Amino acid sequence: MIAETGHFALILALVTALIQFIVPLYGAQRGDRALMKVAAPAALAQFSLIVIAFFALMHAYVTSDFSLVNVWENSHSAKPLLYKISGLWGNHEGSMLLWVLILSLFGSGVALFGSNLPLELKSRVLAIQGSIGVAFLLFIVATSNPFLRLDPPPIEGNGLNPLLQDPALAFHPPFLYAGYVGLSVSFSFAMAALIDGKVDAAWARWVRPWTLAAWIFLTIGISMGSWWAYYELGWGGFWFWDPVENASFMPWLVAAALLHSAIVVEKRNALKIWTVLLAILAFSLSLVGTFLVRSGVLTSVHAFAVDPTRGVFILMILCLFIGGALTLFAWRAPALKAGGLFAPMSREGALVVNNLLLCTACAAVFIGTLYPLALETLSGEKISVGPPYFNLTFGLIMLPLLLLVPAGPLLTWKRAEAWPVIQRLWAAALATFAIVMILLVAMARGPWLAPFGVALGLWLVLGAAVEIAERTSLFRSPLATSWSRLKGLPRSSFGMTLAHAGLGLAVIGIFAVTAWREEHIVAMKPGDHLNVAGYDVTYLGEAPMTGPNYSGDGGRFRVMDGNREVATLVSERRRFRPGNQETTEVGLLQAWSGDLYAVMGDRMNDGARAMRIYFNPLISLIWLGTFVMFLGGLISLTDRRFRVGAPKTARRLQPAAAE
Amino acid sequence: MKRLLFAFILLLTLAAPLHAVQPDEILSDPVLEGRARALSAGLRCLVCQNQSIDDSNAPLARDLRLLLRERVKAGDSDDQAVNFVVARYGDYVLLRPRFMPETWLLWIGPFALLLIAAAFLYIRRRRIESSAERSLDADEERALRHVLERDA
Fold this sequence. Notes:
Chain A has about 650 residues and is an alpha+beta fold. In chain A, about 65% of the residues lie in helices and about 10% in strands. Chain A folds into four domains: about 1-165, Four Helix Bundle (Hemerythrin (Met), subunit A) (Up-down Bundle), CATH 1.20.120; about 165-305 and about 315-405, no CATH class; about 415-515; about 520-620, no CATH class. In chain A, helix 8 (about 165-195) crosses helix 11, helix 10 runs antiparallel to helix 11 (about 270-295) and helix 10 (about 245-270) packs antiparallel against helix 14 (about 345-380).
């Protein structure tokens, strides 16, 4: 009964979305305020209905109702509660339901917080949101219904892939989807602006927080996924340029570009056409990502061709929205008035360079991800495009961008001089140079390019420090003045500096671990020991162990630093019921200098185990860096300028109340 | 049937813990071993999803790793060893595609795009600059004179 209620609510949500799409759009064209006002309640109703559907499915998962095909296929009664819940979005149907849930959540967010938007703009934005909802709800109801019943119901479910039974991966999809789908708001704003024929500073100020929120979610989602891959897959890597990873990375890159170009629209009223195009591209890449991951086209072109219903449906949605948006863009963009002029050497110019490089870096990822598909479809020839390609092309394009980041915020708007910027940055440059020299001498091991990579990250961190020092005139005025200036800094500029520093930290971590990882692959018997990066690691032996839905062996390692015992690491081999799928749990000792990473492998013939023990120097900086970027985004989001419109309506209301 | 087999292999590689290079595979000469590791990181495991043979625990990947080590031990250069594998399994095994007519667009594409976009920006810049420096036409002269006279 509950499942049927959910099913029914889902269909009602589709109808509501249809109303949300058509009525306000028509109303805005006719100038009919009553029709336009349908948009907000429709968005809220759509959200409520999808919440009902979502919790109906959640109920089925939590109570292990195997009469639902979807639950039977992806759950098991012995699973811990967290993974019963996360099992909901660990599969195609459930994850699409989560997708539309978040879509409607953002839609109702616009409806609730958009009270300072002009009614016409607001109703158009919500109408476009509604149209996306129609497409995806129709997709779910027609091809991916999670509420289908089984008769007779089986006693036990098939279980969730044990690799997915992990806290980081439980929350990874909701964050990632919040990012993907959050970009739909920027998209809807862009479309509304094109219909409206007007893009101004106010428009940019409305778009920026939504883009920023989406970017924050993407940042946290991607780094969670990477963290999961690092300690759950058990071969010590953190990024594999896998098509699924790329699918989430491309919207992140373009959203970052959009964040920067929207600043120019807001402050200088320039780059308007380009910003609208970026907003369209960002969400288009989210759709492409959804298509790549959900259609099965990545597993193989043939798997896609054999069962094409879903893939073709998403492909149609994709073509409809991207094609429609670009057509509207081509038709209406010339009507947008070009804005303020600026010299090439200026803050605006620097942001243009930022956009140019971020977008071509994204293009490199896009081409590399889709080229094998395209080539095989066109000529039947099969090639692979792997990490070496991406490291080379993406790396080469990102290099100048990273070099220029510290200079950008120090440039003045409109027209800037290079010399003052160089003067301000020379201390950071000198410090960076000194560290390259020290690293070159100290690190005999590893590729000679690595110290330069680490220095690049350091340059970003120091550049951010210089930026803060400049803004607070640190060392040039009394500390108290600097402190009060620091407190007076707008949160958005503080957040920006923090995000740039976070980027630098991540870059340091990436280069350090890639170049200087220490790796040991050895057969060990209990009592054997090994020296890894100054630690003495002794294999103590293994013991059987059991968990809620698995049993296995745990291998114990004693880690000594000199005479001091630092830790006992446990690496597990788990066999999950049902199906006896095996996973590995890594024994991990985290320290600032780096991670000690121990994995127990297979038994060898002579009773020994094949052990893989790594030392990953500075790898924590990667996730610390992404966390700092996330924090920077969050601080920037709380800037009062983004809420500046809200008090205005309150003031307008007051005289009315006094009358 | 073939598809079923493929799905089955996929399931195996996904499910099993990922332990790639085994201790008994490692060559005693660290220089040769280092070369073999570097080479195997650039070769694709044919039965896995987007994994190099260095990362994969599939039996086929192990066979390829052993084969590669044999070639390196026999005195093959890096290119010779890789060519030996490519001759048997095709270009598909290379994670870094070769530069050939079919992949020109792949390799040049991103950089060409960067150049085209930069050129576009440059040309637009020039056009804006020249239009900004353009002298006033007759109508505008008249309008300017009108404003100046009115103010005077």
